[in-house]
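Now read the record:
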Amino acid sequence: MDQTSCQAKVHFLNESFNSNPDRSFFMAKLNQRTLKQHLNHLSREELLDEIGILFDKFTKVKEYYQTKFGAEDSQGVLEKYKAIIEKEFNPPRGLPKARLSVAKKAISDFKKISNSPVDLADLMVAYVEAGVGFTLEFGDIDEPFYISMEGMFEKAAIHITKHRLHDQFVGRCRRIVYDTRDMGWGFHDTLSEIYEEYFGASD
C-alpha cells in the first residue's frame, strides 16, 4: 500500500470512529459498566444471539447455564468435577498422581459456575474422601498432604453448618473421621477436633 492510500485509509477510519455515537465505549477500558453501555444498544434478538455464541464457544459459560437452569444437566456438571478429583487419587488406570493443586482447582472452578450450596458441599467432602481413600491404599503420605485435607475438611464443615446441610453430609464426614483412625501426622486427631467443633461428638 502506497503512502497516499495509507493516509486515505487512516482518514476513513478516523471519520468512522468520530461519527460513531457509541465511540466512548471504545475509548474507555472495558469493564462491566462500559460493557452494559454497549449491550444497551443491542436488540433483544442480538442479545440472545450473543448469549448463544458464548454458550456454544465457552465450556464454562455452558456449564454455568446448565447448573442454573437444568437439574439433570447440573448433576452432570457436578459429576464431571468430581471425576477430576477422583482421577487424581484413584484413576481407572495407572498410578494416581495425587496433585493437590489439580484437585483443588476443580473445586475453585466449580465455585465460579455453580450457586448450589449442596453441590459445593458434595464436591468438598468428595475431595477429602478421595484423599483419605488414597492414604488407605498407599499408606501415610506427608504433612502438606494432610494439612490440605484438614483445611478442606474444615471449609466443608463451615459450609455445611452455614447452609444447614447436616442431614445430607454429617454421615459422610463422620465416616471420614473414622477411616483416618490409624493414620499418622496427627491427621485423625485434627479431623476429630474439627468434626466435634461443628457437628458434636462423633461417637
